[in-house]
Amino acid sequence: MAKLIELTREGRVALIRLNRPEALNALNSALAEELTEAAQALDTDRGVGAIVITGSERAFAAGADISEMAGKTAEEMVEADFFSTWDRFAALRTPKIAAVNGYALGGGCELMMMCDFAIAGEGAKFGQPEVKLGVIAGMGGTQRMTKLIGRSLSMDLHLTGRLMDAAEALRAGLVARVVPDDQVLPEAMAAAAQVAGYSRPATRLAREAVMRAEELSLGEGVAWERRLFHRLFGTSDQKEGMRAFLEKRKPDFHRD
Ligand code: HXC
Description:
Layout: E1 5-10, E2 13-18, H1 29-43, E3 50-54, E4 59-61, H2 66-69, H3 74-80, H4 85-90, E5 96-100, E6 103-105, H5 107-114, E7 117-121, E8 125-127, H6 141-149, H7 151-160, E9 164-165, H8 166-172, E10 177-179, H9 184-197, H10 200-212, H11 218-231, H12 236-246
Parallel strand pairs: 2-3, 3-5, 4-6, 5-7, 6-8, 7-10
Antiparallel strand pairs: 1-2, 8-9
Hexanoyl-coenzyme A is lined by residues 23-24, 26, 62-67, 69, 103, 105-107, 129-130, 133, 135, 137-138.
Pfam family, one: ECH_1
GO molecular function: hydro-lyase activity
InterPro entries: ClpP/crotonase-like_dom_sf, Enoyl-CoA_hyd/isom_CS, Enoyl-CoA_hydra/iso, Enoyl-CoA_hydra_C
């Protein structure tokens, strides 16, 4: 059976490509497991500083797999804790960049939002069209989208099921950058290489601190950030980074 993801490495960057093009990369349970297991292994690999997740030209992912879910009962969904695999993916500490061409719908948009930021092509389309299927988002979409783009626009997308184009997604802050379609992967790989070139503890803790902003009050978040900031003074990369600045040279991080 063809693998549901393809994993390649370029230096300290890992690239994961979703590989169900015939189903527009619909996210079935097997794909979720394969992707999460691969990403969990990368997360503990000190040689990996960033992960890029991408799909095909036509679709990043057109949602959770409707054919897998269609016949399920509520009892089966509860028993399997359906979609809980994605919590393990979202909890990974390595910076993850989504490189998005084509459709990022439903679970596809939710997977994109589990990544730390997204770079999209001009032709990309985003949405949470679950309402058209008689359900709602189930991989965190109502929560992450609302935190990313605000209640009003999130409600619009979840209640009408309409799609958003790349220009609107950029304005809304759903994606960080929009580039010509054929530049999406090169741009994402270059951004990932930049991240992966810095101190590994610094990028992981920067990511953790920013993510905490979604959970904590301002005071708690600032205190959390300060403790992580202090912690970094125990790394050789902090010494090297600051020494290199003072000596007017490029730092040579050991990424400890
Ligand atoms: C299963 C899917 C799929 C999906 C596409 N396909 N999306 N299969 N699950 N989410 C399959 C189609 O059945 C078709 O298979 C093939 O991919 C190509 O899709 P087409 O529809 O023929 O392509 P096109 O006409 O270009 O339309 C593209 C599209 C449309 C607009 C993206 O496919 C679409 O609306 N897909 C569903 C989008 C959606 O509703 N996503 C949310 C899912 S629910 P065949 O075999 O016919 O070639 C979700 C969260 C659920 O994500 C949470 C609730 C618990």
